[in-house]
Amino acid sequence: MTKLSSKTKPKLLCFGGAWGIMDDPQHRGITRREAMMMNKKAGFDGVAVGADGEMIRETYEIGLERLTGISCNEETFPGQLLLGHSTNSRRINVQFYDHDTPPKVAVRGWLKLEKFAEQLGANVDLEVHRDTCTETPEKTWEIAERYHQATGRMIRMNFDFSHFALVKHIGTPYASRLLDRPELIQNARQLHLRAFNGHHCQIAVLDGRGKLTPEGRDYLDFVDALLKCWLKGAKPGDELCILPEQLTWAGYQLTTFPPVWGDMCAIMHQARKTWAEAL
After folding, report:
1. What is the pTM of this model?
2. Cβ–Cβ under 8 Å, residues 242 and 18
């Protein structure tokens, strides 16, 4: 097998977040800039950002790439997309519409959003997420099919499989149930990696002593299978952005969980390990 050069190999970009450090009691009082510098030192290529001018400036000064996200519908996407585009992010994640939005309506709106994004020169991804038009696998696959019928292309999605795992109450090994549409996964250019099981949308990868939890091991096995699936369809020069999205708000992190920063780093290290071994 011919080895690919570093210029032609598929590229993995890992994104962290300042929240993983700033919300850790061990780092109380740390500034956002200091937290982003710790992300860079830990090996992240960039961070998740909002439309915050000072934060964007700091990423440039530190040498970090950016990912951003918006939540919108057919009526609100122009303003939201302009905000997202203002961050000059590598990609813009889009949580689109609501849980009860019919796939036909979602595709109609997505085609309009995509056209506007193309005019701006923005890269957008439709996120698979609860309480959006992609809440269930069935709705997501119908959206993908309707989009293909309308355009002849595969839709660009951002898979956060924690949501499907929870909705479908799945057990291990997760890959056998979740990686059943490899062509859509391989078409993705962004993946959100939140550790999960079939009962919880977020679990702790590491325990309070920095050791891998049994549930965390199951999840990292899934990350390995997911990235190998993506790489099977990758062409020279393709790029994938990943975000180990262990959150500290909205009920994701239970009060008994250890800080999420270690989890984010553990997921990143697994992703880089899989990538290096596969190439």
Report:
1. 0.95
2. no
